[in-house]
Structures are given as structure tokens and as C-alpha cells.
Amino acid sequence: MCGITGQTRWDGQRVPRDLIGAMCGAIEHRGPDQRGMHVAGPIGLGIQRLRVVDLETGDQPMTNEDGSVVVVLNGEIYNYRELRQGLLRRGHVLRSEGDTEVIAHLYEEHGPACVELLAGMFAFALWDERRSRLVLGRDRLGKKPLLYALRDGALTFGSEIGAVMRDPEVGRELDLQALDGYFTFTYVPEPRSAFAAVRKLPPAHTLVLEDGRATIAPYWAIDHDARVDVRDEREAGELVRDALDRAVRRRLHADVPVGAFLSGGVDSTAVVAAMAEAATGPVRTFSIGFEQEEYDELPHARAVAERFGTEHHEFVVR
């Protein structure tokens, strides 16, 4: 899962190292395998890492060749291998085999627009030492969270609101409009949070902070007018199946075992079917059941697991 956090200041004060440590501690459950920090004058970055890819050389923060660009990443960049090969051909020197370092080198070439080249689920923070610039980026559909609190002289951010609230200077006043949204929709619509001082970076957006000015801008949007011409229902089904297979294969790359949550419904069944076709061994599946029969989906999940010969695990919530 991983979690990132940090702070930058332009009020003449240094970022306290113990503050970054406390903020990391608030999200340690997201990444118990490694804590990394970069604290230098006006910037502090923190990472709690769950090792999935590049177990040996992938600890964070990651930098470019001279250390002037520093990155922490929560998530996974699915196309990093292709991006990495392109960087190597263009003369970049990479020390790791993972995806985080790729962002630092892409930034050297493209600046904040490097986010447009990334395919994946991610939230990252990047510090450009030469420009005293902080870049926050979030994936296209917002699978990975990123919250921030901007005030005069400082910006604090984190993967969870608990990390941001470890900063004692962040206001505690509730956002009553956010509370209204929660009771209306059962979630708080972006960019609000439960606290008036804290905001969510929207999906497919970057936040660039330079010279004390923050610019929040979209880098991608769904094209609702896009159409695909198909001859019949069979061809439409083949296109959907091909897209699903390609998406699943991209997500199977890991240096630790990969599994799937299986409810037995259409979505999870389709994913497990694609995994079983692409995997070299049995797929690991995990299902949650309930003692109340009307809520229990374990029989459906079990049928799917038997159909595809998965290594199936069931847990009952009481």
C-alpha cells in the first residue's frame, strides 16, 4: 500500500525532522517494511514503504543522479519498465530496478508534465532542489489518496488525514459543508475533507508549489465523446475482454505473491479469470463471508475458485 507525507516551508523556518517522523508514524500501517525521510532546510519528505517491486534496491526516497530531484511514491507505475528503457537509451543513470526512480529522471526531461507519461495508480511528491519547487501528483482516477493543508508560509501533505493533522499548525475546525456532503452521499466529495484546513488533491491533477504560490491544474480528463465502431455484440465483447486482459497482465508484475479479492460477482470473477489465464501457477484468491446467509457471498466465490483452480482462502466476519 505505502504512504507518503511531508512539508515544505517558505517562511524562513526549517522543517523539523521530528515532525516528519511523527507524520510517518501516523501512516506506518500503510508501509511497515521501510521508513525513509529526506529533511533538508525548507523541505521534508517521508515514506512508509510496503515492498512489492524491487525489494533490494527500491527503498525510498529516490533521487536523480546528483540528488537535486527527490521523489517519494505511493502506488505502482505499470509502464515503468518501458519508461526506464527509454531513459537508459537517452543516457540517464539509474541505480534501482523499480518505478519510483523513473519519476525523478522523467521530471528532468519534462518537468511537472512527466505525470502525463505515467500509467498506474499513484500519488507522489517530488522536490526540485534547484528551483525550490514541490510537485504533488495523483493518478487519473484517484485510486491513491493525497491530502494537503496550505497556509501562509507552509504546505503539509499526506496519504491520510491523520498524517496531515500531526502538524500542530493545521487548523482543527470542521468543514460543515463536507459533513453535509457525507450525510448526503456517504462520502466527502473532493476537494473537501472533514477539516476546513485540509483539502484533497483531485484525481488527474498536479499541485506545483513555487515561490510560495500553489498552482493546481488537471493533466487529463475522460473523453465522454469517444466512440468505438463495432460490427456486433461479439466484437464489442472481444474488445472488452482484450482490454481487461491487458489491464490485469500489467498488474501482475511484482516481486512478492499477488492475489485477488473474490466476491463471486461479475467484476471480481472477470479479474480472476484473466489472472488464471495469464499466471504461471495457481492464483491466490481471498473472500470475506458473513454468518447471515442473506449477506454471505462465499458460495458464489467458492464456485469461481473451483472453476479456475485457485488457491482459495475464506474468512468469516462475525
**Strand-and-helix sequence, N→C?**
EHEEEEHHEEEEHHEEEHEHEHE
Q: End-to-end span in angstroms? A: 26 Å
Query: How are the strands of the largest sheet arranged?
Result: 2-3-1-9-8-10
- Structural classification: alpha+beta
**In one word, what is the shape?**
globular
Helix content: 25-40%
Q: Mean of the pLDDT scores? A: 95
Question: How large is the radius of gyration?
Answer: 21 Å
Poorly predicted tracts of residues: none
Largest sheet: 6 strands, antiparallel
List how many beta strands DSSP finds: 15
Q: How many separate helices?
A: 8
**What is the subunit organization of this protein?**
single chain
How much strand?
A: 25-35%
Characterization of this structure:
The chain has 318 residues and is an alpha+beta fold. Helices cover 28% and strands 28% of the residues. It has 8 helices and 15 strands. The strands form 3 sheets. A 6-stranded antiparallel β-sheet has the order 2-3-1-9-8-10. A 6-stranded antiparallel β-sheet has the order 4-5-6-7-11-12. Helix 6 (233-251) packs across helix 7 (266-278) and helix 7 (266-278) packs parallel to helix 8 (298-308). The chain is globular. The chain starts with a strand and ends with a strand.
